[in-house]
Amino acid sequence: MGPLALFDLDDTLIVLAPAFRRFAQDFVRGFALPAEAEEWLVEAWDPRQKRDAFFARVRERYGLTEPVEELWRLYRSRMPQYVELRDEVRDGLVAMRRAGWRLGIVTNGGWMVGDNAHADIEGGAAAGLRTVWIGVDGEPAPRAATATVKDVVEAFPLLLTCR
């Protein structure tokens, strides 16, 4: 098995700002919003914020009747068509695979679940991930733990409620 390289997706492998602008243009047209709404969307959008919070603001500002979950679903379903992978990025990834590398993509807002305070929880937090500590009897939860569970099975419903 070859070496492993993990890449962040947003604003590392792909550039989100131009893709989001194209999404905003279509969103404004699709909901018949005023022309200035496009600039407001682009200015208000922060790729690090929770998308449901963003769409709650959009819904309130423009008086949309669609539920926030529907606006978020629309974003998730349409954004992939606006994102472009630069040729040189694709070529680099292909070259790494041909050289035997295993590649993975880790997106911001991801989660690390584990029982090792240093490697799993502190390491995950240092990589920008939220963390779920599987508590070991008698050991205090690490400060970097976003949540604590007693068994990995408890992590599944927790993660399923997060976006």
Features:
163 residues, alpha/beta, 3 domains, three-stranded parallel beta sheet, two-stranded parallel sheet, 5 strands, 13% strand, flat
Question: Overview of this structure, please?
Answer:
The protein is of the alpha/beta class. The chain folds into three domains: 4-12 and 86-106, no CATH class; 16-82; 111-160, no CATH class. The protein has helices at residues 16-30, 37-44, 51-62, 68-82, 87-98, 117-126, 152-160, and strands at residues 4-8, 102-106, 111-114, 130-134, 147-149. Strand 3, helix 6 and strand 4 form a beta-alpha-beta unit. The longest helix is centred in the N-terminal third of the chain and has 15 residues, at 16-30.
Number of domains: 3
Give the averaged pLDDT, no decimals: 90
Structural class: alpha/beta
The description of the largest β-sheet is:
3 strands, parallel
Nearest-angstrom radius of gyration? 19 Å
Strand elements, count: 5
Low-confidence stretches: none
N/C terminus separation: 32 Å
Short description:
The protein has about 160 residues and is an alpha/beta fold. The protein is about 50% helix and about 15% strand. Helix 1 packs antiparallel against helix 2.
Question: What is the secondary structure topology, with strand pairs?
Answer:
Elements: E1 4-8, H1 16-30, H2 37-44, H3 51-62, H4 68-82, H5 87-98, E2 102-106, E3 111-114, H6 117-126, E4 130-134, E5 147-149, H7 152-160
Helix pairs in contact: 1-2, 1-4, 3-4
